[in-house]
Protein: Probable deoxycytidylate deaminase
Amino acid sequence: MNGTGDRNSKRTDFLEWQEYFMAVAFLAAKRSKDPCTQVGACIVNDDNVIVGIGYNGMPKGCDDDAFSWAKKSQNRRDNKHLYEVFFLVCHAELNAILNKNCSDIKGCTIYVALFPCNECAKVIIQSGIKEVVYMSDKHAHKCNTIASKKMLNAANVKYR
Structure:
């Protein structure tokens, strides 16, 4: 249907490409087992073909039941943020880049639910991605987000 019930003309209530790719990123986030923050990422080439999808989670081969997902724990070694500091949690952007289904993602666009941290910005820049489309910038005031924007600007990677 075309949004008005007319079956003789094309639909007008379809998702635009950008809405579709962001929806894919949000769908990928549903795979995350993190109880506090679920982030997904979707990498798209210039032909509007999805070439990579990822979500935040423990690295392959690491039993996510062996690590605590709690923000605060009685045992400091069980604190989720301790693992993030030591890079045991792989962010959605990193997973999408590592899980790409083509040899080169130079010039692609990445859609993410949350603005990339500084570590993900480095990987995005190194991979040749040209643009970051994000839904939320709730950590804009944090040092790693400020650093991320500085690096993306210096590398001429657009973000919106």
About this structure: The chain has a mean pLDDT of 88.
